[in-house]
Amino acid sequence: MYDKNPNTTVAEIAEYFGAPLFEIETFRLSLFRGSDEKMMEMLQYIRDIAPTLPHPKFYPAIIPLVVSFTIVGSLIMMARFYSRLSILGRIPSYDWIMLVGFALAEAIMGVIIADSYTSRNGTANYDQTWNDIANDCIYLNIRDVLYPVAALIIKSSLLLFYWRLSPNSRGILRWVIVGTFIVSLGSCVPAVVVNLVYYGKVDWWNYILDPTLSTISWLNYPLEFMITGGLNILTDVIIWVIPIILIWGPMRKRGKPERIATLMLFTLGAVVCVTGALRIATFWELTMRGGTGPLAKIPISVWTIIEVQLAIICASVPALRALVVKYFPKILGIRNSIIIGSTIRRRSRALSRGQELELDTFNDFDSKKRISSTPPASVPAAKLENVHSRDSRSSPDPIDEYA
Question: How confident is the model at residue 389 (pLDDT cuts 50, 70, 90)?
């Protein structure tokens, strides 16, 4: 620009780079003491070395990753809600909470896709306009605010689900659930607040070239990221272990196909925990090691997408298992479906109305026995208090309750 017009003004430079006038003026005054000659020398130097500079592009796998998880996640959530309606006859509260988490996960991926547009010419600052750099900061800040909120909501849904499964007699397990929620909340709130106030201005991306823009002196952002990230991994591991405790004993009595499927599920859950650790390791290499490690080549956004989406998929498996048991029981080695949709719906409605039910209405759900060939008329009616409800102290097999 200076080559074609040596008398270029600061206003024209600001317009050329798409930057606010005060930013360019502040930049010129702070770094070059108001000297146009020195500013011209710097720009000429950048122009000379530009051919030798690296020009990294946006990570190509992100867009296919977003598209794939959007399709798979949407199908799984639809199957989850269909399972609840067709088998249980209603949508439990923890499913609605998970739906909110899924919406936030989709919003995170949308923000990441929008951020990819800012890197259309390259991810290095010298390949971007001022507006591209500012938008990149905006999108990444939104991502880092939404991520802990989405993680908290997904974990809250799972913990509420576990709370419903754990009987009062297992007091320790319920205390673990409460403690896990408190730790999850404790890691979410600081992560959100720090991202909003770290630079002293919420819209700090509008002051990129302002030399007066500084971080809060007493706040160490990398340390905060590592601590909240570590707590996030800790709660991930606890949430992964809780269902193992609930179904480990009964699962040993199940058929081989079902045991293999359960092992695959918990392996996928372990991947979620590992992905959270890789997200922290990538941040560490980018901030503390100057981006020299192998993980620095993979954006944090990739680990963010994988971790959140796999968590939703793992959390939806119990509902999907119920569909398999109902329609394709032989896949899991089950001879007859132990969950019958119309039966459970009648049971749920009758329990809510306090009606008397015939004992055979519950079929195999609690007894795990084959449906009796005795005509319904010959089976005596049973009072409501004699029938084991879902909240009864004498709960059914945890594996089926898990579904």
Answer: very low
pLDDT in tens, 25-64: 666 655 566 566 666 677 677 677 777 777 777 777 888 9
State the number of CA atoms in the 13 A half-sphere of 186 facing the CB: 12
The DSSP code sequence of 342-400 is HHHHHHHHHHHHT--EEGGGGTTTTT-SPPP-S-GGGSPEE-GGGS--TTSSS---HHH
The end-to-end CA distance of the chain, in Å, is 66
In tens, the pLDDT along 208-245 reads: 666 666 767 677 888 888 999 999 999 999 999 988 88
Q: In sequence order, which residues have a C-beta less than 8 Å from that of residue 250 and are 6 or more positions away?
A: 397, 398, 399
Instruction: Report the amino acid identity of residue 88.
Output: L
Residue 310 has pLDDT above 90, yes or no: yes
d(CA 123, CA 56) in angstroms, rounded, equals 6
Q: What is the pLDDT of residues 255-295, one digit of tens each?
A: 777 777 778 888 888 899 999 999 998 888 887 766 666 67
Tell me the β-bridge partners of 358.
381
Q: Which residue has the higher pLDDT, 61 or 364?
A: 61
Residue 354, CA distances (Å) to 21, 108, 347, 383 in order: 72, 45, 10, 10
Return d(Cα 231, Cα 323) in angstroms, integer.
34
- What token pair was written down for 272? 């979620």
Residue-range domain boundaries for the chain: 10-52, 62-332, 341-402
| Per-residue pLDDT at 111 | 93
CA dihedral 399, 102, 185, 262 (to 10 degrees): 20
The more confidently predicted of residues 140 and 153 is: 153
Q: DSSP string covering 218-276, please?
A: T--HHHHHHHHHHHHHHHHHHHHHHHHHHHHHHHTTS-HHHHHHHHHHHHHHHHHHHHH
User: Average pLDDT of 97-105?
Assistant: 96
- Asked if 39 and 209 count as a contact pair (C-beta separation under 8 A), the reply is no
pLDDT at res. 51? 75
Q: Are 361 and 336 in contact (CB under 8 A)?
A: no
Candidates 286, 146, 117, 134; CA nearest to 201 is 134
Work out whether the CA dihedral 94, 100, 103, 107 comes out positive or negative: negative
**What CATH number does the domain located at 62-332 have?**
1.20.1070
Give me 379's structure tokens.
Answer: 């089976």
